[in-house]
Amino acid sequence: MTTDSDGPAGGFPTPPREFTDEEGREIGVRSADAAETETDPLCQMYLDFDPADRAQGIPPVEEESIRDWLDLILTQDSFNVVAWHGDRAVGHATLVPDETGAYELAIFVLDSYQGAYVGTELVRSLLGLARAEDIAYVWLTVERWNDPAIRLYRSVGFETTDSQSFEMEMTISLAG
Amino acid sequence: MHLLLCLGPGEPAVDAFDSAVERATEADDDVTVAVFGDSEDRERLTAHARDRLEGVDVPAELRELESDPASRLVELAEEEGVDRIVLSGGERSPLGKIQLSRVAEFVLLNATTTVTLIR
Fold first, then answer.
1. Which residue numbers of B have CB closer than 8 Å to A's CBs?
2. Which tens digits make up the pLDDT trace of A78-102?
3. Residue range A66-78: average pLDDT?
4. What is the mean pLDDT of chain A?
């Protein structure tokens, strides 16, 4: 695991934080729990989302379904971080608890902000938040042909735990 | 058309089955229903299927698959010469991702007939 000077949580920084992306844009990363005012910018981000970047049925396409889905993941039990460029939400990473006490992770970045480490910084910030919240175990599934996403997850420490099916399962242990 | 309707455990599968029966009724299809899961699931699902098929005018035959449901479904479709296999597209993960069941994956990859996944 890499170490990071700006974060106490096991090498992962905690939000809020700012960084300059590969394109020279100032990006702010903030936690988004419970702030209802953030639903609209997030909804707008998902309306702008490139259909080619959808994965396993999410995010939904229609505004109403997007709002229903955001209601599902922006709850008291879940953890969310949003990447902001000015007042525009350009990325979102979420952790939603499963029935075993582990958390499922997913990340979404607008097309024009991909390839600039926005996703990597979002995931690192979310994992920092997770460690600070004593979350021990995080998993995700990713389509096995989604190489950029798999590379990103590997780079922050996820390991493949199940590659038998169409979707590959990857996990990271944050305990200890 | 002769359909093989697959009914396994899980709420989405039951909903998918119900809507498949509805469509089969409208389309005048013949159906074979294959029920799978553990013995408790099968008992419950068989009762549900009987209940659902009762009163609708669909020629139906009920089968219980005790083990290896995935490969048995594919075999059964071939034995019965069905035109189409209809099954549930699977569950959703905690944050809403579609998760294809192992059974659905196997059937999609190995069936020699058309497969309809219901969402």
1. 92-100, 102, 105
2. 999 999 999 999 999 999 999 999 9
3. 91
4. 89
Q: Is A80 on the interface with B (CB under 8 A)?
A: no
Which residue matches tokens 């990859």? B109
Q: What residue in B sits closest to A97 (Cα-Cα)? A: B94
ipTM of the complex: 0.80
From B95, B99, B105, residue closest to A73, measured CB to CB: B95
Q: How do residues B45-82 score in pLDDT, each as one tens digit?
A: 999 999 999 988 888 999 999 999 999 999 999 999 99
Domains and CATH numbers, chain A: 2-135 (3.40.630.30)
Which domains are present in chain B?
2-118 (3.40.50.620)
Pairwise CB contact (< 8 Å): A56 & B99:
yes
**Alpha carbons B6 and B85: distance in angstroms, whole number:** 7
